Amino acid sequence: MKLTPVAALCAAVIGVTGQQQVLGQRPDPPNIVLILTDDQDVRLSSLDYMPLVKKHLVDKGTYYDKHYCTTAVCCPARVTLMTGKAAHNTNITDVNPPYGGYPKFVRQGFNSAYLPVWLQEAGYNVYYTGKLFNAHNVDNYNSPYPAGFTTHDFLLDPFTYNYMNSSFQRNQDQPQSYEGEYVTDVLAQKAYGLLDEAVDAKQPFFLMIAPSAPHADIQNNSGSLTFDAPVSAPRHANMFQDIKVPRTANFNPDIPSGANWIRSLEKQNSTNVNWNDHFHRQRLRALQAVDEMVDGLFSRLDSHKLLQNTYIIYSSDNGFHIGNHRMQPGKSTGCEEDINVPLIIRGPNVAQNQTTQLVTSHTDIAATIFSLLDIPLREDFDGSPIPVSKKAIEEAETKRREHVQVEYWGFAGGEGIYDRRLHQNNTFKGIRVVAEECNLYYQIWCTNEHELYDMSNDPGQMHNLLEDGGKLYTLFGFPIGKVVQRLDALLMAQKSCKGKTCREPWKSLHPDGRVQNLKDAMAERFDGFYEAQIKVQWDYCHNGYVPEAEGPMFGDERVEFADSGLMWPDWV
Ligand SMILES: *[C@@H]1O[C@H](CO)[C@@H](O)[C@H](O)[C@H]1NC(C)=O
Ligand SMILES: *[C@@H]1O[C@H](CO)[C@@H](O)[C@H](O)[C@H]1NC(C)=O
Ligand SMILES: *[C@@H]1O[C@H](CO)[C@@H](O)[C@H](O)[C@H]1NC(C)=O
Ligand SMILES: *[C@@H]1O[C@H](CO)[C@@H](O)[C@H](O)[C@H]1NC(C)=O
Ligand SMILES: *[C@@H]1O[C@H](CO)[C@@H](O)[C@H](O)[C@H]1NC(C)=O
Ligand SMILES: *[C@@H]1O[C@H](CO)[C@@H](O)[C@H](O)[C@H]1NC(C)=O
C-alpha cells in the first residue's frame, strides 16, 4: 500500500473530476491525527490528570515511557519532529533568530522540505491548527506562508501564550483576534471544523493540532515580556486545590545538585515553593481543556467511522521542570524532567493498553508517520520508524537503538515570577542510554563540566558519579572510567551524525557490526580502541551551533579512529 507520487497525481486528477478519489484506488489508506501540546511533562505526572487522554489513548493504545525530545525547547524540538533531523542538522537551535524561529526555518530551506509538504506530495490532504513555530507572528505570517497545507489556522505570536486574547490566522486571511475567548476552546472548534472538512474531502488526511497549553502565560507589557502561570478555562479554575509538584528526590533539595549554573542555585523559600505549586496546578487546569478537546475529537472520529483507520498520536514538544534541582519553572536543560516527553499512539494494529520501554525520540516521528502510511523513508532522516504493533515492539526490544542523543545551545530562563535571570552557557551535549543493565545519562557542558547519572538507582540525578573523578565507582561491573570512554566515543560519533550514522551509531565506531549496544562495546578487547579515541571537548560556549566552538568532530583529521576489525580479533 504505497502512496507514490504517481498515486498522488492520480488522486489529484480523480479528485478534480469528482470520482472515486484515491480511496477507490487504494483500499483504506489510513489517516493520522497528531496532537502536540506545549511544554507538557511526563515526570511531574501531568498525564495522571487527563482522564480522557487515558480513556481514549493510553487504555486503547501504546504508551512510550522512554520517549525523548532531543533539544528541550519549542522551536528546535518542533522542527526536529517535522523534518526527522536532529537540531545539529537543521541548525534551528533556538526559539528566535538568528539561531531559530520561523524566519530561520524558512532561511534553512525547510519550508519546502518538511512533513506537511512531503505528505501532500504523497497524496494526503494536510490540516493544521495551533502553534507552528516560535517567531511566526502577526507580521511575518505571509512572508512566506508556511507551505504544505490544504487548510491551516495558526496561532500567531506575540499572542500565542495569551490564553484569553489569542490571534489565529487561517489560509490567506488576515490574523483574527479572539479577545475574551479561552484559547484551547477556540482551538478545539477549529480542530473539529478541520476534521469535518477532511471528511468532506473524502481524501486520506493528516491533521495536526497544537494547543499552546500548558505553556506559561506571556503578556507583552509595552515591550517587556512578562511570564505568569498558565490560565485555565473558567470552568476548571477550582480543580486540584490540594495538588502540589511531586516531592521527588530532586525537588528543591537541601544540597545543590547538577553542574554549571544549576549547581549555583539557592534553595527556594516557602513563598517561592508555594507559588510554584500554584503554577503546577494552573498547568494541570489548563490541560483540562486539552483533555476535553481530545474527547471531542474521539467522539467525532467515532461518529465519522474513522477510528478503525486512523492513527492518533499524542505528544509534547518538550518536557518541563518545576523546582527540580532548585530550578524555577522551565525547560531547556538535559534533566529527565525536560527531555522525557509523552508519546501515546493509538490506531490500526497498535497494541492496546500497552506500555513499552523502547527508546524513541522526536527525531523518529517523521519516519514513523512515513512508515505508518507506507511512504518510502528518506535517506536523510536521522531517526527511524517507531514500531507500533505488539510483534514489532517485541522484535525491536532486542534490536533497536538503546539511546538518544540530547543537545542544546544558548541560555535557560525561568518562566515563573521569581528569579528571572537568564542563565548563559546552557550549551551541552548529552546521551541518554536506557538499557536494563546500563540506564544512564551522560552530559558534557560547553564549560567542559561532565555529569554521569545512574538512572536506575538515582532517577532524580542527585549524585554525579564523576564528581570525585569517578574512581571509587564501578557501574554494572566495570570501572566507571571504562564506561565513560565508551560514552565519550558514542557521543563523539553522535554529536555531528547525519542520516545513517545517527540511525546506526555503533556502526561508525565498529563498521563490521560487531557492536550493537553499550554492553557489547564494554568487551575487554575494545579497551585499547576506546582509550585511544579523542574525547568530546568544547573550545568555548556559544549560543548557537558554530562548529569552531565544538572541538574535535567525528570524521575530521583529529578523530580518525574506527575499529578496523583486524586489530582486536574475536579470540582476544
Ligand atoms: C490495562 O491493563 C491493565 C493490566 O496491565 C489492567 O489492569 C487494566 O484493566 C487494563 N485496562 C483496560 C482499559 O483494558
Ligand atoms: C487583544 O489583541 C488585539 C490584537 O490582536 C489587541 O488589539 C487588543 O487590544 C487586545 N485586547 C486586550 C484586552 O489586550
Ligand atoms: C511587544 O510590544 C511592543 C510594543 O509595545 C512591540 O514593539 C514588540 O515587538 C512586542 N514584542 C513581541 C515579542 O511581540
Ligand atoms: C523568597 O524568595 C523569593 C525569590 O528569591 C524572594 O523574591 C522573596 O523575597 C523571598 N521571600 C522571603 C519571605 O524571604
Ligand atoms: C561562559 O563560558 C565561558 C567559557 O566558554 C566563560 O569564559 C564565561 O565566564 C562563562 N559565562 C558565564 C556567565 O558563566
Ligand atoms: C548555524 O546558524 C548560525 C546562524 O545563522 C550560523 O552562524 C552557523 O554557522 C550555522 N552553523 C552551521 C553548522 O551551519
Structural write-up:
- Helix content is 29%, strand content 18%.
- It is of the alpha/beta class and 572 residues long.
- The protein has a 10-stranded mixed sheet with strand order 6-5-4-3-7-1-10-11-2-12, sandwiched between helices.
- A hairpin with a 2-residue loop joins strand 8 and strand 9.
- It is globular.
- The chain binds 2-acetamido-2-deoxy-beta-D-glucopyranose (6 copies).
- Residues 91, 98-99, 544-547 line the site of one 2-acetamido-2-deoxy-beta-D-glucopyranose.
- One of its GO terms (biological process) is phenol-containing compound metabolic process.
Low-confidence stretches: 1-25, 566-572
| Quaternary organization | single chain
The CATH superfamily of the largest domain turns out to be Alkaline Phosphatase, subunit A
Tell me the major beta sheet.
Answer: 10 strands, mixed
- Domain count, please report it: 2
Coarse morphology: globular
Strand sequence of the main sheet, in spatial order?
Answer: 6-5-4-3-7-1-10-11-2-12
- The total count of helices amounts to 18
Pfam family, one: Sulfatase
EC number: 3.1.6.1
Modified residues (3-oxoalanine (Cys)): 74
Enzyme class: hydrolase
